[in-house]
Design goal:
This protein is of the alpha/beta class and about 650 residues long. It is built from 22 helices and 21 strands.
Length: about 650
């Protein structure tokens, strides 16, 4: 593997077509002499105090990527320009003079802290210039001098000493700087622990699995050879394969078994390459399998999401659901019908991270007492991710082994306006916005939804924890007839309603809105109806009217006086259904989630109408009626005129 890498790693540099290297350091440390000597390949007699940008041609190094070297001024008045150059660098070369120890100290007291202050997050090459002038009696090695500095500043990629006058290691300076940009260490290897970084391990594990065609947990000799040809365009000789496995087996016996090179051995080989400075080998492998410098799949490997309007959503196809169901069963090692945290982590061990470990997916699904995720909960999470971020769905499907065209894993739904005209929605995933005043019971509704299946994993709590940010809950809802739909509840904090409705398309993604109030509190009811009017008005003004339901929470408490009269009046005035009473404390949900899905399936019903909207509709009816009368009158006049002309023509003919 290492042999072929030397000749072929140059063909892929993560999309880079040029490298910009900025040279900085104290005055008199040899910056300009270093640059001129590297470009001209001889020591100059006279060196100007500041060089213009210097370009090394693409054939200067084997990587065949041109380099632009930026010299920096040591004048205090040029500090602003130096800072700009450093911020624009792909790599920074910091110089000190080997015959001036204080310039080395200045690296850790000034230059390296300055780079951090400027948030320059690129590889740093520390270069000791004027090696020929160093005191011959100095016996301290470069490693001894630089080790404590490199421990403190991990951004230092490598250190090297050189002499422009004697032309010692001058080309190597910019070769290492270029290499640090094209094949960076930081994403792959932890210098402190001397181990591969987790994200690198995850990517290499995915590559190993893709190359293990017979899925026996080891790369056989033919599989190793196929891998070699794919990555380096050159086969391995049988003796080379034997040599590779011998190296692994001597250092790590479990890295090889009777079937071939194991995953442990595969990872060991890459750690070995990196330790020996052969980062281009690992980077070539990663890039051949589509990874970028962040160890994520390149954007061009993830298909574009089909164009859609704001009232269209994205869902998983049956093909994707079948794949996910099979994947679930594959990783359910104990066959208990649930993925425990360890099993779920293993399922996503070939992805950069588990997508369900962060907002908005974390704690948005139903789990059992052991943290296990059922198949429906697993599919619910994917339904939520596809709804909110379909690109992430496609990317993660690729990571976990989706073999087909990943664009076939998603579909765009019909426009909701068209659903309303057809009086039926064909969607399998519905998004419900949950509005309501503080302490109305919105969060309790979401919690109860996550315990509405067979697993009662979220018991009711009397403790009040105000929701300050939007929150999601997703679960499946079994409908009459055996159909299954996914429902996404999106809790909107009372303080966030104005911000939400400030956007014209705020309700475009909403299939149905629910307004929760505390049935024992009249003020809670009044605020809920105010929110209902706000949302209904927004829908009327933007054309994104949505079905709305009212939920009377805390039905275990006594209702406030005149509650029935108030609710009846609002239902009659706005054309909504009567409030649905529920008690999360008693576990009495009154089939509220089925009712929510049913209302979303019939988007032409349960749409509230405000007084302003009703007046506007009556006005349009009046205008249309007037236009109809005008058009009928005009038609009568035209017919009458035509009849008169016929009559006149006949009269003239008879006379």
């Amino acid at each position: 593997m290492a042999r072929a890498a030397a000749g072929n790693a140059n063909q892929n540099h993560g999309g880079r077509t040029a490298v910009r290297i900025v040279v900085a350091g104290d005055q008199g440390t040899g910056k300009s002499s270093l640059i001129v000597t590297a470009a001209a390949e001889n020591y100059p007699a006279n060196v100007p105090p500041l060089l213009p940008p210097t370009r090394l041609p693409e054939d200067f190094y084997p990587e065949r990527v041109p380099i632009t070297i930026i010299d920096t001024s040591s004048k205090p008045e040029d500090n602003g320009k130096v800072a700009e150059d450093l911020k624009a660098a792909d790599a920074v070369v910091l110089t000190y003079a080997c015959d001036q120890p204080h310039t080395l100290e200045r690296l850790s007291t000034f230059w390296l802290p300055k780079l951090r202050q400027l948030e320059v997050k690129v590889p740093v090459i520390v270069v000791g210039c004027k090696l020929d002038l160093r005191d011959e009696n100095q016996e301290v090695s470069l490693e001894q001098v630089m080790s404590p500095i490199m421990q403190q500043f991990r951004e230092i990629e490598t250190c090297i000493e050189c002499s422009a006058f004697k032309h010692i290691q001058i080309p190597e300076v910019f070769y290492y700087a270029q290499k640090a940009v094209l094949h960076p260490t930081a994403p792959l290897f932890d210098q402190e622990t001397q181990t591969l970084k987790d994200q690198c391990v995850r990517a290499l594990k995915r590559i190993f699995i893709l190359c293990d065609h017979d899925r026996d947990g080891a790369l056989s000799d033919p599989e190793l050879n196929d891998f070699q040809v794919k990555c380096f365009n050159a086969p391995l000789q049988p003796s080379e394969i034997v040599g590779v496995k011998r190296v692994v087996q001597e250092k790590l016996p479990e890295g090889v078994n009777d079937r071939g090179l194991t995953l442990t051995g595969f990872l060991f080989l890459h750690a070995l390459f990196i330790e020996k400075g052969r980062l281009e080998t690992t980077w070539t492998v990663l890039r051949k399998f589509g990874y970028n410098n962040d160890i994520r799949l390149s954007e061009e490997l993830i298909p574009n999401i089909p164009k859609r309007t704001s009232d269209q959503s994205v869902e998983l196809t049956n093909e994707a659901i079948d794949f996910l169901s099979a994947t679930f069963n594959l990783y359910d090692d104990d066959h208990d019908g649930a993925l425990r945290p360890r099993e779920l982590e293993e399922l996503f061990s070939t992805a950069p991270v588990s997508p369900f470990s962060e907002f908005p997916y974390k704690e948005a699904e139903e789990r059992n007492a052991f943290g296990g995720l059922s198949l429906d909960g697993f599919l619910s999470q994917w339904a939520l991710m596809t709804l909110l971020n379909p690109a992430s769905t496609m990317e993660n499907l690729i990571y976990i082994g989706y073999a087909g065209d990943v664009s076939s894993a998603i579909r765009v739904t019909r426009k909701r306006r068209l659903d309303r005209k057809k009086q039926q929605s064909e969607r399998n995933v519905f998004q419900c916005f949950v509005f309501g005043p503080k302490k109305a019971g919105k969060s309790a509704l979401l919690d109860s939804f996550l315990g509405s299946g067979n697993w009662k994993c979220r018991p009711f709590s009397d403790n009040y924890h105000p929701t300050t940010e939007e929150r999601y809950a997703v679960n499946h809802v079994d409908q009459p007839g055996g159909t299954k739909k996914f429902l996404v509840l999106r809790e909107v904090p009372e303080d966030g309603v104005s911000k939400l409705l400030s956007s014209k398309d705020a309700l475009a993604a909403c299939d149905i809105a629910v307004f929760v109030h505390d049935s024992s509190d009249e003020l809670s009811w009044k605020r809920a109806t105010e929110l209902l009017v706000e949302v209904a008005s927004h829908g009327e003004n933007t054309g994104f009217q949505v079905p709305c339901l009212i939920v009377a929470a805390k039905d275990d408490l006594d209702s406030f006086p005149l509650a029935i009269q108030h609710s009846t009046r609002v239902s009659q005035d706005m054309g909504t259904e009567a409030p649905i009473p529920i008690s999360t404390k008693l576990g009495d949900f009154n089939s509220v989630f089925r009712k929510i899905v049913s209302a979303a399936e019939h988007p032409h019903l349960s749409i509230p109408e405000t007084e302003a909207g009703r007046s506007r509709k009556q006005y349009h009816r009046l205008i249309n009626r007037s236009l109809m009368f005008v058009s009928v009158g005009a038609a009568v006049a035209i017919v009458g005129l035509a009849a008169y002309r016929v009559y006149a023509a006949r009269k003239n003919a008879s006379s």
